Input
Amino acid sequence: MKLIIATHNAHKVEEFRRILSPLGIEVTTAQITEPEETGKTFAENAYIKAKAASDETGLPAVADDSGLSVDALGGEPGVYSARYAEVGKRRATVLAKLADVPEERRGAHFTSAICCVFPDGTAINAEGHTYGKIAHENRGENGFGYDPIFVSEEGAAKGKTFAEATAQEKDSVSHRGRALREFAAKLEEYLRNKE
Ligand code: IMP
Output
């Protein structure tokens, strides 16, 4: 199965390929116009992006909308994760807002909503979460976005920031890993029932 991935974020494309190709799903990029993310939830924004890409290409398209929710900030930056502060200052903004927040109140989670839209309008949705804490400083070189300040509390990545974890460690517990594995199972079921 081949799907268009509705994103201009090269890191997301890499993670999609890493997680989906062993499951038999190929994703390809296309020149697509990025729609305005007017949704109030990750799931709404994922649908907006996948639908726009499917309409534009006439092909099945899959999108991820994701973000970091920090407990002590009332869930911010949440759906505004990509637009929170200026480029290059997002992690520093979160660290500064949490400067005086003690260890036990630094909880945070990532969410990834996946939506795949087919040309006939069928949509398949999946969502994944992963839990951890906000670090006191950037740690690690891998990954992207908020990875250097997110200390995982789960599985193989426990105690490491997602930027210190290997790709395999991150994927095994990450919001996107979980959402994409759920999506792959739903897609397989949908295709089997269509036969
Ligand atoms: P989106 O492209 O509107 O979904 O924006 C998602 C934003 O959330 C990204 O630009 C990152 O800043 C952040 N984000 C989402 N997933 C991750 C992740 O796996 N690691 C680090 N940051 C992430």
Notes: The pocket of inosinic acid is lined by residues 9, 37, 65-68, 81-82, 110, 143-147, 162, 174, 176 (CB under 6 Å). Residues 2-194 form a domain with the Maf protein fold (CATH 3.90.950.10). DSSP finds five helices and six strands in the chain.
